[in-house]
Amino acid sequence: MRRTTLGRLSLSAILAFVVALLGLAQPASAADTPPMTISVDKQSATPGSTVTIKLTFTNDQTTNAQFVYQSIQPTWNTTSDPGLKYAFATCAGDTSSCTVPNQQSGAVSYNVPILPGASRTATLTYKIAADSACGPSRRIEFYTYLYYEYQGGQAKKDGLYPVGGTDIACATSGTPSAATGR
To answer: Is the pLDDT of residue 176 over 50?
Structure first.
């Protein structure tokens, strides 16, 4: 029995459809979970206070992550404002390495392997200098670069993620003025 061209095309189309369906049948958790979540404990801070940044990497792949590196850097707006002064004080978490070498940025290598859907967290704290500039439009902001490898090191992903900024508000004395009695 001889197959026609239409018959071969139909068979090919059916096979392609089945393969596409199988490709879409990945676990929902892998597609729904972003690889990076970031939180900052203060939306507004005053000179002399501390701010904590929490970075959580979640393996969004269907295989173990074998290598995960992340850096945190100040944005251009932060570095271009000469009045803003801060320094990272601590870096800790589920990491094999967590450093703040120049106190203006940091680097993290997470403990691996990280199973599919599992997470690792690093926490960095910085102190705003007591003599830092403050006021409207004064913000300390960062971005983070994330790089990770999976599938036995055969595949990789990377990307930039914004870190929520903190407004630097001027401290109010909170004491009554001697001249006004208020």
So the answer is: no
- Predicted model pTM: 0.76
The whole-angstrom separation of Cα 111 and Cα 96 is: 5
**What distances in angstroms separate CA 47 from CA 96, 129, 161, one per listed residue?**
32, 6, 26
CB neighbour list of residue 38: distance below 8 Å, 6 or more residues apart: 53, 54, 55, 56, 144, 161, 162, 163, 164
- 44-45 and 155-168: which strand pairing? parallel
Comparing CA positions, the residue from 55, 63, 15, 17 lying closest to residue 35 is 55
Instruction: List C-alpha distances in Å: 24 to 32, 78, 117, 181.
Output: 13, 42, 18, 71
Q: Cβ neighbours of residue 85 under 8 Å, at least 6 residues apart?
A: 128, 129, 131, 132, 133
In tens, the pLDDT along 153-164 reads: 899 999 999 998
**% helix / strand / coil in the chain, to the nearest 5?**
15, 45, 40
Per-residue pLDDT reduced to its tens digit, 43-67: 999 999 999 999 999 999 999 999 9
Task: Please spell the DSSP secondary structure of 100-159, one letter per residue.
Answer: -TTSS-EEEEE-S-B-TT-EEEEEEEEEE-TT---STT-EEEEEEEEEEEETTTTEEEEE
